[in-house]
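User: Please run a holo structure prediction.
Assistant: Happy to. Please share the sequence and the ligand.
User: Here you go; the ligand is (2Z)-2-iminopentanedioic acid.
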Amino acid sequence: MNIEKLLTSLDAKHPGESEYLQAVREVLLSIEEVYNQHPEFEKAKIVERLVEPDRIFTFKIPWVDDRGDVQVNIGYRLQFNNAIGPYKGGLRFHSSVNLSILKFLGFEQIFKNALTTLPMGGAKGGSDFNPRGKSDAEVMRFSQAFMLELWKHIGPDMDVPAGDIGVGAREIGYLNGMYKKLTRTCTGVLTGKGLEFGGSLVRPEATGFGGLYFMKQMLETNGDTLQGKTIALSGFGNVAWGAALKATQLGGKVITISGPDGYIYDPQGIAGEKIDYLLDLRATCEDIVEPYAKRFGATFVAGKRPWEVKADIALPCATQNELDINDAKLLIKNGVKCIGEISNMGCTPEAINLFIENKILYGPSKAVNAGGVATSGLEMSQNAMHLVWPAEEVDAKLHQIMASIHDQCVEYGRQPDGYINYMKGANIAGFMKVAKAMMAQGVV
Ligand code: 2IT
C-alpha cells in the first residue's frame, strides 16, 4: 500500500477536506504493516473501497423561524460502510458541519462500530443548523423539515441515526415523531429516544460511562488506578456530564470543565450538585460555562483550554482537534499519566505522536467513546425484541463491551517493550473485522 499516493489522490478528488484526510491517514499508517501481510486485501482494493462512502445524500432544509423569516440549511447523511451491519451513526447539528467533518466522523464510525462487537456498519449525518439559542418550536420545525428528506434513506435494518453534538433527546424526539407520521411505523429507526417511546436506559450516560470504564481498565492493566486521580475534562455537554459522573463514582476528582468561552478550574472537585448543574447550564442554550464560577465560587479562565492545569488524567469531551501539540507539551510537563479521547478525534496527530513517543497511555476515541454507539446497538436489540431491559442489564452489557474493546486494543497494540499503543490496536482490530467481512461478501 502506498499511503502517500492514496492520500494525494483522495486530496485531489476531494480538495480541502482536511479532517477527513486526517482520520484516513491515521488509520492507514496504523494498519500498513498488517495490510501488507495480506496481498488478498490489496488485490480486492479493500482500502480504496473503504475510504469512499457507499453513498452521500445532501438535501436542502427550508424552514420558518419564530419571526416568520425563511431559513435555509443543508442536511447530509453519509452511508459509509455496511459490511458488518446496518449503517449506524449519529447526526450532528452545528454551524461548523460540512462534508469533511461528516466524512471523518463516518469513517471513524466504521471501525468504532466494528470494535463494539455488535453488528453495525458506519454512517454519519447532520446539518449546519445550530440548535443553541433557538426556541423549542424552531428546533421542532427544523427537525421535522430535516426528517421530511431523511426518512426515504433510513430504516431499522438499513440505516439507524442517533444523536451527536447538538442532537440530544429533544431533537431525537422531534425527528422520531416526524418519521412515524410519514411512515406509520413504530420501528427503532433512531436511537437515543426517550424512555417512554422505545429508548434504552443508560443510553444518555453511556458515552461518558463507557469512556471511564475504559480508562479504569487501561490504568489497571498498566498497574495504576483511578482512585484519587485529578482529571482535567473539557466540554460541558452530555458526554462531559456522563464522564464527570462516572469519574467521580470511581474515585477520581474532576477539576475542570470548559465551553467556547473558556474553562472552569475547581480544585475542590466537580461532584454532586455541581455535576447536576451542568444540565442547567446546557438548558440555558447559551454555550457558556462562566455562570458555574459565579455559582460555586470557582475560577473562570476566559478564552483558554483546560489543558494548562496540572492533572493526572486528561479527558477531551468537546469536539475534534481540541487538544494540540502545545497542549500535549503542557500536559506532559505537568506529569499527565493518561489521556482518554471521549470526543471524536479530540487530539491532533502531532499531540498523539508526542504522547506515544513519551509512552504515555493514550486511548483513542474510536475505542474510548464507543460505549455510546454500543448502547445504541443495545437499544436496537431491545426495539427489535419489543421489550425493555433494566438499567443494570444494559450497564452490565456496556461493561462487557468496553472490556472487549480494551482486550482488542491490547491484542493488536502491545509493543515489544510492553507499552500498549492503543491507537494502533484499535485501528488494526477494527480494520481487520471490516476487511474480513468485505472479503467474504465480494466486490459490492
Ligand atoms: O460518535 C458517536 O459514536 C455517536 N455520536 C453515537 C452514534 C450512535 O449511533 O449512537
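The two ends are 21 Å apart (CA to CA).
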